[in-house]
Amino acid sequence: MTGKQKTIKERIELEDIGTFSGQRTRIVLCPADPGEGMHFAQISGGGESRIDCLTPLVVDSEKCTTLGNKDGARVLVVEHLLSAMYSLGVTNLRIEIHGPEVPLFDGGPEMFHQKALEAGLVEQEADTAELTLAKPYMFQDSGGFIVAFPAEEFRVSYLFEHPFDSRCMQAVEVVIDDQTYRSELLKARTWITDREAEIALSSGMVKYGSPETTSTVVSKASTSRPLNYDDELPRHKVVDIIGDLSLLGRRLKMHVIGVKSGHRFNHELARKIWADNPLVS
Ligand SMILES: [Zn+2]
Fold first, then answer.
1. Are 38 and 135 in the same domain?
2. In terms of C-beta distances under 8 Å and separation of at least 24 residues, what long-range contacts does 139-143 make, across chains too?
3. What is the pTM of this model?
4. How far is the CA of 122 from the centre of ligand 1 (A)?
5. Is residue 281 included in any domain, yes or no?
6. Structural domain boundaries, residue 256
7. Which of 7, 80, 182, 224 is 20 to 30 A off residue 40, Cα-Cα?
8. What stretch of H or E contains 81?
9. Are residues 79 and 167 in the same domain?
10. How close is the Cα of 246 to the center of ligand 1, in Å?
11. What pLDDT was estimated at residue 190?
12. 113 alpha carbon to ligand 1 midpoint, in Å?
């Protein structure tokens, strides 16, 4: 059974300093018509450049997910915003962005989710498109793997070794719907180790954030911020998988299993799926 397309009722403005650029960034989420899809409109110098939120427009996935178009416009850190919108069933959204990246806030999807609910959601007179798989897909390298099996629902499983204790395996499995997203994933924030944080800041890769700030990518999960869940780290990987695979542009019916995988794996998997199942508009 297909559902209805959705957008938000009112505009939402959000602003913070970008983690990678160190620049103040403002985004404005705006209602969009049925069939418009999820897309960024990057505003600069009086003009704007449209970047559709679709797998073929992923141009970098080293530390976060970056979308770009053929005119050279780029938007970094799209994954938590898109993950939150997918969980709410939002399919049409114009995201005006004044700056190079989506603000990180606390490192999870909660701010975007909360603001969208405050603005209100509206069902539209058009059915959603669904993506079902006819066969499994897989991407692997020496570090890990990710696989997507055909399924009747969207289920995500993730398994990895804890970064501070390799004897400790953590695993999560969530059937993705509005309720489970709120109860299992909403407060799962991004993380890197203190050592990685030092390197990221001193090398200039990350220009904003510290273990003491709330708007940060650089917090050791164990000490500088109390965990929201015992297994917050793998739960955040599930948040990322949802945001990254939402770029397939449809409601997903598949069981995705990631083992020590990250953004690059997500997009390599998505490209394989897209090659056999392109979005036809
Ligand atoms: Zn993330």
1. no
2. 139/265, 139/268, 139/269, 139/272, 141/265, 143/260, 143/261
3. 0.93
4. 27
5. no
6. 130-276
7. 182
8. helix 79-87
9. no
10. 14
11. 86
12. 15
Catalytic positions are 263
Stronger pLDDT, 200 or 82, i.e. the higher one:
82
The CATH number of the domain holding residue 122 is 3.30.230.20
pLDDT of residue 213: 44
Residue holding tokens 């400790």? 168
At 188, which CATH number?
3.30.1700.10
With a cut of 70, say whether residue 207 has pLDDT above it.
no
* Residue 190 belongs to a domain: yes
Neighbours of ion ligand 1 (CB under 5 A): 190, 240
Least-confidence region, from 120-124, 139-143, 164-168, 241-245 = 164-168
Crossing angle (nearest 10°) for helices 232-245 and 263-276: 30
Q: 184 and 272: one domain?
A: yes
Whether residue 139 is contained in a domain is answered as yes
Q: How far apart are CA 67 and CA 60, in angstroms?
A: 7
pLDDT tens, residue by residue, 255-277? 999 999 999 999 999 999 999 99
> How many angstroms separate the alpha carbon of residue 275 from the centre of ligand 1?
25
Rounded to an integer, what distance in angstroms lies between the CA atom of residue 17 and that of residue 76? Answer: 13
Q: What are 138-175's pLDDT values in tens digits?
A: 999 988 999 999 999 999 999 988 766 667 888 999 99
In-domain check, residue 96: yes
Do 45 and 114 fall into the same domain? yes
What is the whole-number distance in angstroms between the Cα of residue 239 and the centre of ligand 1?
7
Question: Residue 55 in contact with residue 131, Cβ under 8 Å?
Answer: no
Q: Are residues 42 and 168 in the same domain?
A: no
Over 60: is that where the pLDDT of 130 sits? yes
Ligand 1 centroid to Cα of residue 80, in Å, is 6
